[in-house]
Design a protein that fits this description.
- The chain is mostly helical and 116 residues long.
- The chain has one domain (2-102).
- The chain has helices at 2-20, 27-36, 42-56, 70-83, 88-102.
């Protein structure tokens, strides 16, 4: 049991380090996600981000969400979800996070400029 807890602690710490490399979502991106999916708020997006970090960095370095086009993520995510043994719900949450983080449509309403 102690060995399991030690391994889990290391994974959480490593996931936290990898997560630090992912830029946080902007308020405009969070607003964009809420327009796409009514049930997707800041807290849920952060949970999806952490799920992406923890489950995906366990096997390889994380890709920035913007490193791949939407079509590439559509091909990669189902394969990786199967390998990572993600549920359909988990895969969908990660998909929403990736699309939100990629959202070029997220415009800062105070300046009218894209957040990127």
């Amino acid at each position: 049991m102690a060995s399991f807890l030690a391994k889990l602690s290391v994974l959480v710490l490593l996931g936290g380090c990898a997560g630090a490399m992912l830029p946080p979502l902007s308020p405009a991106q969070i607003e964009w996600a809420g327009q796409q999916w009514r049930d997707m708020g800041a807290e849920r997006l952060e949970e999806a981000r952490l799920l992406y970090v923890i489950r995906c960095s366990g096997c390889h370095n994380l890709f920035l969400p913007t490193a791949k086009e939407t079509g590439e993520w559509e091909q990669i995510l189902p394969k990786m979800a199967e390998r990572a043994k993600l549920t359909d719900v988990q895969r969908n949450e990660i998909w929403r996070y990736l699309q939100t983080a990629r959202s070029a449509a997220a415009v800062d309403t105070t300046t009218g400029k894209a957040d990127r």
